[in-house]
């Protein structure tokens, strides 16, 4: 097949949408498909290149780097998209967002009678830290942002999103086309436990104390990740044997440094900056507990990669994260934006140190439901179903067969997990 993917972000940008789109495009090429990707660029002229077999077209755009380094706005992209579609002749168009480049792609595809699939990575809450409006106004702002997105996505043939929770949100907001949860997928061969890892060596490499319990966050240091909640929880913990490592960069980095100093966490919080992808599996295996305090995750690839490396997880009980983390089975959950509850959950995990290996094994088991090759096969089936000669199947997809969350494991293991969860929950509720 000839597949045109249109996205407002692509590698080397380090965000979930970029990672997914890059993996999808390159994976489809390896499967023998011809793939073109249209994405914005700050350059003044339309240009292209072939990267890892993917035919990239860079469309000139305004780069709003003062707002966020990953934000581009194409002012008049229709001519470029029209030319690309005429030259590439795609069988299907796959958009990744509702920004101007994708609007043009849908308009051109509809005029030419091409099927269009859309994947959603958007939540209005992700924009809250960057749009300073009064708290009372936010619900109206969110409603307007959803309306803007639905105007485009309700014109599509099929919509996918990363989790069951994400699909439910879209339906609640008025999405009409068939909507299916399909995991973004992870590489279980690359991200896996490494018992032979030289932990001390990797700690030294990144300036960490190998004698301390290491909490690790991987992702953008941006406001919607709610890292301030984690900092405040760590300060409440009042333990010198716990350190937090932050792998990534972002707009909130300097503010977080100031907060760490103000809370007296200077030696216990380590800003690692950008971590090369080749180092990431080893760094994850160096950590004792992976942390994800965000309250706006439609899946969280970073959390899945940590789970694949058999790490226990501390996460906010928000959006799709409870689909990944089961209380007392492979980690602990806390009320979002509640430092006190986060501190209590973290303390519980630390006190249950003897259960970390079992929790890590449960994480790995749950991560297997997100094998990247399964995700790739499902997208191939979706594309094929949209072609004119294809029958419209029921394949779509009996939900339990999707490679997302709640992996198929035998009844005995499920009962053991529920028992462990109940025990852990009772322990957490003990009075101090």
Q: Main β-sheet: number of strands, strand sense, barrel status?
A: 8 strands, mixed
Average pLDDT taken over every residue: 87
Overall body shape: globular
CATH superfamily of the largest domain: Glycogen Phosphorylase B
Please count the beta strands (DSSP E, at least 2 residues each): 16
Description:
By secondary structure, the chain is of the alpha/beta class. Strand 11, helix 7 and strand 12 form a beta-alpha-beta unit. Strands 3-4-2-1-7-8-9-10 form an eight-stranded mixed β-sheet, with helices on both faces. It has a six-stranded parallel β-sheet with strand order 13-12-11-14-15-16, with helices on both faces. The chain has 15 helices and 16 strands. It has two domains: about 220 residues, 3-Layer(aba) Sandwich (Rossmann fold); about 180 residues, 3-Layer(aba) Sandwich (Rossmann fold), CATH 3.40.50. The C terminus is likely disordered.
Quick overview:
With 432 residues, the chain is an alpha/beta fold.
Sum up the structure in keywords:
single chain; 432 residues; alpha/beta; Rossmann fold; 2 domains; 8-stranded mixed beta sheet; 6-stranded parallel beta sheet; 15 helices; 39% helix; globular; disordered C terminus
What does the secondary structure layout of this molecule look like, with pairings?
Blueprint: E1 2-6, H1 16-30, E2 34-41, E3 47-51, E4 54-60, E5 62-63, E6 72-73, H2 78-88, E7 92-95, H3 100-112, E8 116-119, H4 138-153, E9 158-161, H5 164-172, E10 179-181, H6 199-205, E11 213-218, H7 227-237, E12 242-247, H8 253-262, E13 269-273, H9 280-286, E14 289-292, H10 301-308, E15 313-316, H11 321-324, E16 331-334, H12 339-351, H13 356-367, H14 372-386, H15 411-428
Parallel strand pairs: 1-2, 1-7, 2-4, 7-8, 8-9, 9-10, 11-12, 11-14, 12-13, 14-15, 15-16
Antiparallel strand pairs: 3-4, 5-6
């Amino acid at each position: 097949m000839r597949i045109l993917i249109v996205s407002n972000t692509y590698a080397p940008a380090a965000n979930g949408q970029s990672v997914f789109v890059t993996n999808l495009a390159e994976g489809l090429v390896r499967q023998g498909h011809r793939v073109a990707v249209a994405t914005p660029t700050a350059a003044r002229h339309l240009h292209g290149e072939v990267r890892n077999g993917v035919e990239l077209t860079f469309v000139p755009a305004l780069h709003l780097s003062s707002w966020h380094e990953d934000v581009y706005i194409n002012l008049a992209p229709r001519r470029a998209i029209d030319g690309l579609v005429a030259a590439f002749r795609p069988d299907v168009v796959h958009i990744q967002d509702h920004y101007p480049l994708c609007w043009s792609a849908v308009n051109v595809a509809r005029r030419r009678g091409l099927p269009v699939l859309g994947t959603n990575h958007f939540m209005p809450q992700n924009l809250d830290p960057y749009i300073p409006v009064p708290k009372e106004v936010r619900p109206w702002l969110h409603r307007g942002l959803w309306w803007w997105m639905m105007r485009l996505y309700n014109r599509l043939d099929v919509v996918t999103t990363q989790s069951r929770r994400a699909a439910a949100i879209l339906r609640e907001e008025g999405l009409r086309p068939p909507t299916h949860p399909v995991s973004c997928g992870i590489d279980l061969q690359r991200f896996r436990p490494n018992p032979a890892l030289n932990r001390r060596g990797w700690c030294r490499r990144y300036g960490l104390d190998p004698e301390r319990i290491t909490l690790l966050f991987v992702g953008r240091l941006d406001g919607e990740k709610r890292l301030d909640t984690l900092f405040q929880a760590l300060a409440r913990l009042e333990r010198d044997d716990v350190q937090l490592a932050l792998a990534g960069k972002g707009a909130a980095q300097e503010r977080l440094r100031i907060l760490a100093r103000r809370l007296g966490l200077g030696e216990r919080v380590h800003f690692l900056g950008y971590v090369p992808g080749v180092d990431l599996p080893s760094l994850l295996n160096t950590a004792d507990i992976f942390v994800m305090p965000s309250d706006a995750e439609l899946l969280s690839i970073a959390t899945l990669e940590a789970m694949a490396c058999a790490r226990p997880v501390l996460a906010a009980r928000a959006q799709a994260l409870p689909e990944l983390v089961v209380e007392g089975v492979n980690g602990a959950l806390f009320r979002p934006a509640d430092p006190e509850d986060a501190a209590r959950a973290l303390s519980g995990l630390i006190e249950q140190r003897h259960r970390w290996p079992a929790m890590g094994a449960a994480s790995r088991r749950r991560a297997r439901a997100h094998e990247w090759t399964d995700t790739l096969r499902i997208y191939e089936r979706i594309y094929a179903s949209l072609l004119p000669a294809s029958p419209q199947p029921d394949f779509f997809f009996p939900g339990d067969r999707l490679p997302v969350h709640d992996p198929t494991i035998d009844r005995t293991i499920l009962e053991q997990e529920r028992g462990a969860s109940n025990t852990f929950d009772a322990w957490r509720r003990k009075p101090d």
